[in-house]
Design a protein that fits this description.
The chain is mainly beta and 261 residues long. Strands 1, 3, 5, 6, 8, 10 and 11 form a seven-stranded mixed sheet that branches. A four-stranded antiparallel sheet has the order 2-4-9-7, with no helix packed on it. The chain folds into two domains: 144 residues, Immunoglobulins (Immunoglobulin-like); 100 residues, Immunoglobulins (Immunoglobulin-like), CATH 2.60.40.10. 0% of the residues lie in helices and 57% in strands. It has no helices and 19 strands.
Length: 261
């Protein structure tokens, strides 16, 4: 199963102490930004990535595979290939690794992941970075666009848990809900959801959405969602729903809370 998202993951690595503008020769587009694969042990799967030269000059591009992990806020941090326990670097092949494109030219880069027969059920991850190979005078600026790859070895268990939420009022008397979330299966969870606040009479006085948060297996974080209406301190009922990509389970629960602040 493959899940592709059109939103580009754009990572700028600027090797300079001063700011520099992005040059036209570094302009490129990469599609898609993500692959989510589910593979049987002993089998192979992969995909195709399209790189477009969006600049006005011919440009040579390089492709390199790396590992990645999450930082404490859930952001992606690249790591050298084969440096993490979840690396796919030894399993992945892709071609071409270097190519030149004219203005508006396109190149399809195909990759495949071969899973050993004795692979344990778990999720492996990697990223293929594409970067223009050019030398600029003055400040050294390197632009990379990465395609994130998740490769889960079957059988797959996408499971998550939701801790007891806490609620308070901020300085603008808006409700702030903090929730402990964790992925407890062997593959990552992409958690989304919604919340609703009702007063003692049952009238809904606030509602909002939980935007997508990615949790790697074993990862636990606290997120916060806020309302936009001014509320009075007092008793409310919180209705919370959380769900994940790749599962049919939806967490639904009501809580009696006190808003103070």
């Amino acid at each position: 199963m493959k899940h592709r998202t059109r939103t580009l993951l754009l990572i700028f690595i600027i090797a300079a102490a001063l700011c520099a503008s992005w040059t036209a020769s570094g302009a490129m587009l990469v599609d898609p930004a993500r692959f989510i694969l589910e593979i049987e042990p002993g089998q192979r799967d992969g995909g195709a990535i399209t790189v477009t030269n969006a600049s006005s000059v011919p440009t040579r591009y390089l492709a390199i595979a790396q590992d990645w992990v999450h930082d404490s806020q859930g952001g992606l941090m690249p790591k050298p290939a084969n440096s993490t326990s979840a690396s796919i670097a030894k399993w992945i092949k892709f071609n071409p690794r270097e190519f030149t494109l004219p203005p508006n030219g396109r190149q399809v880069v195909r990759f495949s992941i071969s899973v050993p027969k004795n692979a344990v059920p778990e999720e492996r991850r990697g990223v293929i970075f594409f970067a223009p190979a050019f030398q600029s005078s003055g400040l050294a600026v390197k632009t990379q666009i990465g395609v994130v790859i998740y490769a889960a070895i079957k059988p797959i268990k996408r499971m998550f848990e939701v801790g007891l939420p806490k609620a308070s009022l901020n300085g603008a008397r808006q409700a702030v809900i903090t929730i402990d979330l964790a992925a407890i299966g062997n593959a990552h969870c992409r958690l989304t959801g919604q919340f609703r606040l009702s007063d003692p009479s049952g009238k809904v006085v606030e509602e909002g959405r939980i935007t997508e948060e990615v949790f790697l297996p074993g990862e636990r974080r606290t997120i916060a969602v806020s309302g936009n209406k001014a509320l009075a301190p007092g008793a409310y009922r919180l209705h919370l729903e959380v769900e994940s990509y790749g599962t049919t389970n939806v967490f639904r629960r009501d809580y009696e809370i006190q808003l103070q602040g």
